[in-house]
Write a structure and sequence with these properties.
single chain, Rossmann fold, Elongation Factor Tu (Ef-tu), domain 3, Alpha-Beta Plaits, 7-stranded mixed β-sheet, 38 strands, about 25% helix, globular
């Protein structure tokens, strides 16, 4: 039975690493009676949290792959995707947010807005995802939800609306004060399952009234109905909820709730807020591209409309390829025929399932807004499926470029076969995991988002495929570019007895501030026929894979094609491709080139007593310190550091701080390598291997 779209919520749970996302999801599933016993991320029972189904996740106590589940709450069906917090697995967050209608941003009441909070916020903005915030760990020493709200406003530019006050903080945290209903909520029972509503303690009543007035002031700015109700003294809970729901859906406010997932406090009101404030699938406007006209077309969110679904994640399972789908319009049923818009291939849905981590529930149909999975259909992540009546394609997700690589060598032929199978699978499942064979050495090179990213895949190859492997030290994904513009003028002429080859190209190669490649056609008067222009572009583009300094890809290149010549008989696509390649080779020999390196945004956090050691560990790595802060005995340093300097940093940081500090980093941009280091790298690359 398909779910009524108005009573459906698709949400993601995202946050900085170790903010309590997976613990919160475990509580949600327990209170919604989806599971019958709660487990901890690194529990003594060794079972691990429900959503961390991978063995490596349970061992390391981190989420590596996003996991989907579903539950019911107050008559609504909620699809939940629990996402990783570590930036190395950012693609998991990207693909989840691409298909979600709302999100819960989890923040630590002590640490507040952290580096990955900024990243997640950027991703939510990219896909225009409405969100609510849950300030977790209010039982921890140094918890301050009001400070977190200020950080949300100042650092993220959001408009947080505090809907609750804490009933005590740190070890005194007993529950929350609901400012909408003006009542105190305590969470009792063995696992906090009994929510006891009562009067607000007398000593907190004045504070609660002031906080409620602030909440009403913020919410009424976006609702005439609530403004009138406040002025007439009739601002009841339902009017407040309607106003907040509308403003949240339009991303004008962000409701903020409090609690402690680990101590089983505040989770049920958060579920209420998901139902009350986050939108249903039919309240979000989506569009697709008509593949025939290339025009944007609004999507019709009705279950009886022609079916349209987006594949946002694929996995290889023991039953074949498992493809996760978000249905944007229409209904899918078992045994229905569906068409892959990219390939035109028609397939039949053999098995339709709803996911619960790594468990599956067989279903016969799913309608608009639902998140389900199908088996055994060959497709790629980002493909669009229809029922054959539409020629629409959904936009895919943003895929960041890898910044680190290493070469892997199998121990024997059996390991080589296993490694080959694993690499094919992982590169299909994860768009940020790239595999190539080095043309000179013949070695297999894998590239990804960070050391942990590649380390996890190496370990999975050893465990899941039994492959014996050795790996080189990680290598930085350098780029090369021009410093100054230069002109080109090249004629490709070749006679071979029959028809020859002829093409002349003239123009300019210029550096750009950002972007990889741009091609500008400025040819006039038909000097080069329009039919040959794409061939010229293709020829230049094919030369950018390897630069002359290190053999790294060229970037920030603009080609201006200004003039040329052709021959009625001897000119062809191939001739103009070769003309472009020859022009590039000739021009690049006299070019002033520059090596670029990836720069990471690094955040280091640890006890204030180790501030000096933390700072020193960064300065030694060519870091540019952006700022530092200290609160409640904890220090935080933010810096920009070249990726080449960050290898092995975790070991150095642990040694310098007695294992008490931690760090996170994410790619920020490419910048020029200092001349002395660039010369050393070039000299090393020039040595025969």
């Amino acid at each position: 039975m398909a779910i009524e779209v108005a009573r459906l919520r698709n949400i993601g749970i995202s946050a900085h690493i170790d903010s309590g996302k997976t613990t919160l999801t475990e509580r949600i599933l327990y209170y919604a009676k989806r599971i019958h016993r709660m487990h901890e991320v690194k529990g003594a029972d060794g079972v691990g949290a429900t959503m961390d189904s991978m063995e490596l996740e349970r061992e390391r106590g981190i989420t590596i792959a996003s996991a989907a589940t579903h539950c019911g709450w107050k008559g609504c069906a909620i699809n939940i995707i629990d996402t990783p917090g570590h930036v190395d697995f950012t693609i998991e967050v990207e693909r989840a947010l691409r298909v979600l209608d709302g999100a819960v941003l989890v923040l630590c009441a002590v640490a507040g807005v952290q580096s990955q909070s900024l990243t997640v916020d950027r991703q939510m903005r990219r896909y225009a995802v409405p969100r609510i915030a849950f300030v977790n760990k209010c039982d921890r020493v140094g918890a301050d939800p009001h400070r977190v709200c200020r950080q949300l406003r100042e650092q993220l530019g959001l408009n947080p609306v505090l809907l609750q006050l804490p009933l005590g903080l740190e070890e005194q945290h007993a529950g929350v004060i609901d400012l909408v209903e003006m009542r105190a909520l305590r969470f009792e029972g063995r696992a906090g399952e009994a929510v006891q509503a009562g009067p607000i303690p007398a000593e907190l009543e004045a504070q609660a009234r002031r906080a409620r007035e602030e909440m009403l002031d913020l919410a009424s700015m976006f609702s005439d109905e609530l403004t009138e109700a406040v002025l007439s003294g009739e601002a009841g809970p339902e009017i407040i909820r309607r106003a907040l729901r509308q403003a949240t859906r339009e991303q004008k406010v962000m409701p903020v709730l409090l609690g402690s997932a680990y101590k089983n406090k505040g989770v049920q009101p958060l579920l209420d807020a998901v139902v009350d404030y986050l939108p249903a699938p039919d309240e979000i406007a989506h569009s697709a591209t008509d593949t025939r006209s290339e025009q944007s077309v609004p999507i019709d969110p009705r279950p009886d409309a022609p079916a349209l679904a987006l594949v946002f994640k694929i996995e290889d399972s023991r039953f074949g390829q498992l493809s996760y789908l978000r249905i944007y319009q229409g209904t899918l049923r078992r045994e229905d025929a569906i068409v892959n818009v990219r390939t035109g291939r028609r397939s039949r849905i053999g098995r339709l399932v709803r996911m619960h981590a790594d468990d599956m529930e067989q279903i016969t149909e799913a309608a608009v807004g639902d998140i389900v999975a199908i088996f055994g259909i060959d497709c790629n992540s980002g493909d669009t499926f229809t029922d054959g009546r539409l020629s629409l394609a959904m936009a895919s997700m943003h895929v960041p470029e890898p910044v680190i690589s290493l070469s892997v060598q199998p121990a024997d032929q059996r390991s080589a076969d296993s490694m080959s199978k694993a690499l094919r699978r992982f590169s299909r499942e994860d768009p940020t995991f790239r595999v190539r064979v080095d043309a000179e050495s013949g070695q297999t090179v894998i590239a990804g988002m960070g050391e942990l990213h590649l380390e996890v895949y190496l370990e999975r190859m050893r465990r899941e495929y039994g492959a014996g492997l050795s790996a080189s030290a990680p290598r930085v994904a350098y780029r090369e570019t021009l410093i100054r513009a230069l002109d080109f003028d090249y004629t490709h002429k070749k006679q071979t007895g029959g028809s020859g080859q002829y093409g002349r190209v003239r123009g300019r190669i210029e550096p750009m501030e950002e972007g990889d490649f741009d091609f500008v056609d400025q040819v006039t008067g038909g000097r080069i026929p329009k039919t040959y222009i794409p061939a010229v572009r293709k020829g230049f583009e094919s030369m950018l894979a390897e630069g002359p300094i290190l053999g790294a890809p060229m970037t920030r290149i603009r080609i201006r094609l200004q003039d040329g010549a052709f021959h009625e008989v001897d000119s062809s696509d191939l001739a103009f491709q070769e003309a472009a390649r020859g022009a590039w080779r000739k021009a690049i020999r006299r070019a002033d080139l520059q090596l670029l390196e990836p720069v990471m945004r690094v955040a280091v956090e640890g006890p204030a007593e180790h501030f000096g050691a933390m700072l020193s560990s960064l300065v030694q790595r060519r870091a540019v310190v952006l700022g530092s802060s200290e609160q409640h005995g904890q220090a935080r340093i933010q810096a920009e550091v070249p990726l080449a300097e960050m290898f092995g940093y975790s070991t150095v940081l642990r040694s310098a701080t007695e294992g008490k500090a931690e760090f996170s980093m994410e790619f920020d941009r490419y910048q020029p390598v200092p001349a002395s280091i660039a010369d050393e790298l070039a000299a090393r690359a020039a040595k025969p291997r």
